[in-house]
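Quick one, T. Sequence first:
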Amino acid sequence: MGNETHIKIREACRAVYAAILSGQGWDAALGRYDALRSALAPREVARLDPGIRADARWASPRSNARCALLRFGRAPARSARLEKALKAQPGVARLLIHDPDGRVREAAARAMPDPCNDAAALAALVLRCNDWAGDVRTAALQRIRKIAARPSVPALPELMPLLLDQVARWQRGGAEALRLLEARADWPGTLLAMFRHETSGPLARRLRAQLSDADASATLEPYLPDLALSARSSFVRSVAAEIVSTGEARWREGYEWEWIDKVYGLRRRRTIWGCRKIRMPADVVGQVLERAAQDKSSGVRKRAADRLIAEGPGAANAALIETLRTDTARAVRARMEYYDRKWLGENSQSEAS
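Structure tokens:
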């Protein structure tokens, strides 16, 4: 969604606040805001949260001077007006949950209308689980706990990218909110469907991050061959094919500096990788390697060539090796040239001796 929509949402936000603080009717303004808000993706809600909070801080029916008076000189009066609006129309909680006043955010989190099924509203609640104010976090986590206990959460697939990319790294209440949703029975199926069908976003990084967790890894491991063969994203197929063929899942844990020359102060940054052994039947590995060598993505075919370099001629039949030698991608052919130098060169030398 483009910047134009974001501008319209912030304008609608200011209109709602101006109407509430001036005591005018605000149903029409709230309707415009809610129509725009409900179309937002969860990550856009997270991106807009600081801007909406800033607009709410300075929104005024007359002037910035009056807004400053309401915000700083008469803060209790401002909070009272907003809480009165919240009691009159609980739907305004979808806006007030972004308010700069922690008391208003807490009241909005508790008053968020049920069933709270749209992804934007659920994303706003998840954001408040990482709020700096403890009472706001508590209120938001209570709502997430109730939502996670429901038989179904229709917005969970849309919420998944936000949960995996941002919430998992939060240090306040985000991790707890994620654990509540991960405990749902439909979480593994939703996670697998995302890796199987999605084509956008950092899917390879998400897959590696999930395999770094023992519980998530146990859920995904049986499906890795299927992901290597049929995932829509070439990045997912590439990572899954690499894991199946090498028998090892790897993920980035961080970086460290490695000295090249201390005298001249030369150093380079080196990636630190974590790993876990994942064993697959030999016939499954062979099938994945054969399909990877014929994949439409050169990135996946490179993984097949890398495996041949590591394992040697016994890893695949002659037809498959020849297919990779004549590949249309220069990167694949270069790998096969190295394969020939490494394995066939050694064989010819041993025969000559």
